[in-house]
Predict the 3D structure of the following.
Amino acid sequence: MELTLLMYLIPSLIMFGCGIYGFLTRKNMIAMLISLELMLNAVDINFALFNRFLYPGKLEGMMFSLFAIAIAAAETAVAIAIIINVYRIAKNVDINQINKLKF
Amino acid sequence: MESLGNIIMYVIIALSIIVFSVMAVTTKKILRAATYLLFVLLATAGIYFQLDYQFLGTTQIAVYAGGVVVLFVFAILLTHKPGHNAEPITSHKKAQGILAAVACVVLCGVALFSFGRFCFKTLGGGTDVPMGKLGMSMLSTGSDGYLLPFEALSVLLLACIIAGVVIARRR
């Protein structure tokens, strides 16, 4: 039995599907952010996989994953700052309750 | 022929990715969702280690499992009351969500199987990336150099740190 590219792509695809489901159904901002992280992570896996299986010896996909990880971390930091600020103003982080931009 | 240990590691990683990512988006407690996210991210680092990308796996553990998940836990504890009587996080419009997710998965699956002659490629010989080569390519301006994105990323990180402080500051 050999480990093929497809066998690695399937968990990544399922992870992306879970991310879409969570992002569409969750109403809590932090839970939505967690789903977003799942989607970003699935994409990172795909970059590294295609690089390693189809073009071994090159670095493009791996570098793209590295930069994507760094940008995802920065994006999470800003998003959590925004969520904490929203919580301080509106006292919850449920997107159904937050319907005013300025208080 | 793959070694047996490699296959066992693959099965563990794939199962934990599938199970924990489903649980992360369906659980009722948000702190548990963050914990399941941590497991998914660690399993992803396992995939990177299996592909001989040691630096990428280490970055994944350090940045995601070490930084982002801790940030999530702090944000959850700042905005929710943990414990047994914590109010559960609810999901709305589950049918539409499942429909969209299944549609996306089917679309990607059809694309994979129709264009995917490459799908059954196996892992070639060990082409581990030496740290020296990685560092040189990150800081070179040649044809396979990444100096410009590297510098742009450092400016972006600085901007994000300042933005985070400014937004979350108490006025």
User: Anything to note?
Assistant: Chain B touches chain A through 85 residues (CB under 8 Å). Helices of chain B lie at 4-26, 30-50, 54-79, 94-115, 131-138, 147-168.
